[in-house]
Structure prediction request, 727 residues.
Amino acid sequence: MLDVSKENLSKVIHAKDKPYFSRIDFQETGSNESKKYYIGKLSLLKENNEPLIIDWRAPIASTYYDGRLGEVSYQTDTGTVSGELSLKRQFTIEEGKLLDFFDVDITTNDEFLQSHLGAHADNRLKDIVSTIQAEQNKIIRADLEQPLIVQGAAGSGKTTIALHRIAYLIYTYEENFVPENFMIIAPNSLFLNYISGVLPELGVERVQQTTFTKFCRRLLGEKYKLLSPEEKLGFLLKTDADEAERVQVKRLSKFKGSMQFKVVIDKYLNKIEKDMLPNTDFLLEEYLIVSREEVKRLFLVENGHLPLHRRLDQLKQNLSVKLKNRKEELHDQLHNEYQPRINAIRKRMAEVKEEFEEQSELMAEEQSEEQSEEGERVLSEQLEKLRLQLVALMDERDGKLASIDKTAKTVVRKYLARFEKKDALHYYKQLLTKKELLLSLAGDYLSEDHIHYILDTAKGTAKKSTFEIEDLPALLYLKARVEGFAEELTINNVVIDEAQDFSIFQFFVLRYILSTTNFTILGDLSQGIYSYRGVDDWQEVQDQVFPDGCSYLMLRQSYRTTIEIMNLANRVIEAGTQGRAVLAEPVVRHGQKPTIQRYDAEDDLVNELAVKITELKRENYSSIALIVKTMDECERIKNLLTEQGFDNITLLTGDDESYAGGLVLVPAYLAKGLEFDAVVVAALNERFENNDFNAKLLYVAMTRAMHRLDVYYLAGTMPLLEESGVI
Ligand SMILES: Nc1ncnc2c1ncn2[C@@H]1O[C@H](COP(=O)(O)OP(=O)(O)OP(=O)(O)O)[C@@H](O)[C@H]1O
Prediction:
């Protein structure tokens, strides 16, 4: 209790500077009194237990986010409550001082939202409890009966909402979930750091936050190396990469993330389990304990739900129990077999003695001493012979019993040793390196050409236990089905951000190993720069991963960027995807028009770039990003700018845990999910071709900007903008 009180006290102290952000006046239908409710980040009761401040996650607070003034309703545990909302007032409070307030009228609450969006970005995402919009509120409070997929435009608040949803679920279902059971999966450590402040700010600690590769490392152990996914992306993005190879790489990446590959692994597992079975009965010496048919049934059917290695443990128990019972039977059987013969000898001994005694009595007087001595000698000889027979018989029996006991001690172990027990990694390596095996299992889905490509590349990778991210779903699935995991997985609620980069098999395997459908999946197909491995269509995820039902919601409104920037980005994605992309609708916030500058000489471009950066710094933007296509290009520009006197540019690589704001240089694929006050996109060497892939990449880069966007390119590097008519 003391701990809980301490935690509560520290939360209250933290909230003191800004205890609430809005007030609603609500009169429940049937009541004649309108009540005032102050809404804040945490609830506070008066001494008489009347609420002083209610938590933003409380059921009634939903009317603040959802409802216009007038007739409204909200859901509680026990049903729907309706009533009249007569006031929605928003407060700006800083450090305990009321700075301003707005009353939200019937039409809009944009003014308050505007003042929040206009603020400058630091290097961390923030909470938005006071300005959550109705369409976002719907996602945050979506019920848990079905998994939820959210397709949301760039800047629509997906990441922010994901975090608010976790806070909401923990508050609302506190009896079902503890924070430790939640897991957020995000693309990289930099991103995790970027979002790490929001949950504590919302009063939630201890939620697991990881990336898919880290989660795999935790479950699969250290026995493999992983190639950086950026290396492959880098190859695919390279202007001068071999086109035939590019096609192969894409085709195989897609295949490894598909449910077809899962079917291949299932077939493989069937083969593995059948091959594991020995072709012999389980015997104890010459006695049958369990027939091979029964062993097969135990292994494949009765324990079929367990991972193979656990089935062996279970089979060991099954066989041991059967062995113990059979051993007892055999003991009884041998006793029963020998006992009549033993009894017969014993009886014969007694008879011999009796006969001798009778005769001795009859002839007692007639016999001489010599004769009677002779009689006794014959008797003891006879008895000794019988005793020896008896001992031999008992020894024979005991020998057999001892031999059975001795053999029984090792027979289970020896039998189980006939099952070939290999780990998941071994099996996966075999699959990628053995031609016959791969052909027999995947021949229906892959051409011989593709199979040869896999075998060729596996020589330098899989054979040496080096894999790529596309291999992880299969490895995880094999591990789950072959070995099982060392730790018990207690995660029962999963939030996946930037989910457009996930493959179907990846979603499937998470669902499979965690045995839950409590998934909130958020992504934007227009930002699918890893689309060679990621999903193309959310419907596939609904159909193949959650066939029992899945909710799907869309967010079109974008809050990050100005209208001017969003319009330009929309034209890029529209042109590159031939109009297939769902366009973002910016909230009404104007800013400076983005510029696009073309240069014929590299020197001129770099000089102007330097001027632009200096200007942005002077305008006091706290976060400025220079975004380019590849890591090579980053390094090149860094050198050129260093020559211009910029020696404090931070180059972001995938491994960064954090960055301190200021000026950063980053390849577009790593900037995904982040945001900056000002973005400068530059292209010196790497061309943005006029295709879907490049359009997505440029779209990601452009939509990172909150207030300013400028594009600098060298003649010839922007077919995407020039050929598609964007400029
Ligand atoms: N209701 C809101 N009120 C105030 N700010 C908001 C609101 N919704 C989103 N934002 C702001 O919009 C920006 C974008 O949000 P976020 O990064 O969560 O979007 P996203 O959909 O994940 O973007 P992307 O897919 O481009 O990475 C953030 O600065 C966030 O604070």
Notes: Residues 282-416 form one domain. The CA atoms of residues 686 and 707 lie 26 Å apart. The first helix runs from residue 2 to 15.
